[in-house]
Fold this sequence. Notes:
This protein has a single domain (7-268), classed as TIM Barrel, CATH 3.20.20.140. Helix content is 43%, strand content 14%. The protein has eleven helices and nine strands. The strands form two sheets. The chain has a seven-stranded parallel β-sheet. A two-stranded antiparallel ribbon has the order 5-6. Helix 5 crosses helix 6, helix 6 runs parallel beside helix 8 (192-207) and helix 8 crosses helix 10. It is globular and about 50 Å long. The relative contact order is 0.15. The mean pLDDT is 95.
Amino acid sequence: MESVQRVSVHGGHSGEFCCHAMDSLEEIVVAYIEQGFEWVGITEHVPPVDDRFRYPEEIKAGLNARQLYDRFERYIAACRRLQKKYIQTIQLYVGFETEASSGSIPFIHDLARLFEPDYIVGSVHHVDDIGFDYSADWYARAVAATGSLEALYCRYFDAQYQFLSAVRPKVVGHFDLIRIFDPSYEATFALPSVQNRVRRNLELVHSMDMIMDVNVRAITKGAAEPYPTRTILRQAIEMGISVAPGDDSHGVDTVGLNIDRAVEALRNLGADMNWRRPAKSRFMARP
């Protein structure tokens, strides 16, 4: 069996710069090196646009939006330092992962121009400004706010389409995260209204030459398969969309965890195993 490079296109959350992660960023980088990773994208979360969009653990920690912005600034500086320190042993890409709440698009354009990350992971965690992936309770709130599970999926993929079109990230993060608390997601994805939106968004990803993050965080948290689900992943590969595994690590104990399962799934689907590295982003003027 051919040797496949160990990489993560979406990884490196740390307790140093993320309230729901563990360990220092340098400890996580060293763990990647010890596991023989060729390259890794460190993709910490962006700060919230304002205090309304803080997560409960950030509120509990007494952090306001300004303080979270300052922490993000420290993250970029620390990541650049580690990028240089370990350049002989691993290729680190300094990136960040987006939010898609109200006001986030112009805010992300500002962050990108100011901090000049190597690339951006385009992720959607909000529908109608509700952080649906935070907990099952928040997910239920999002279903109630949109009117039905089908409507929630449709709103998610519409928001994703708008966001990807406006931000043009190099990597699409956990494409179908909306299934996180839906035990019958296969049936929901089979609905024509959802199918059509998935196909439309995949065509957008292909037309913009983005890389699809095959994100194993889902498996780490107990799911049977990564994001995106096998059906969507097969469509993406058949369309010629580039794919790459992402461990979405949140501490040393999850660095590289389940990456081999993602690689095996991609191999079985006939994916190109020569992982494409994310190209340096070109950041547009604020819309």
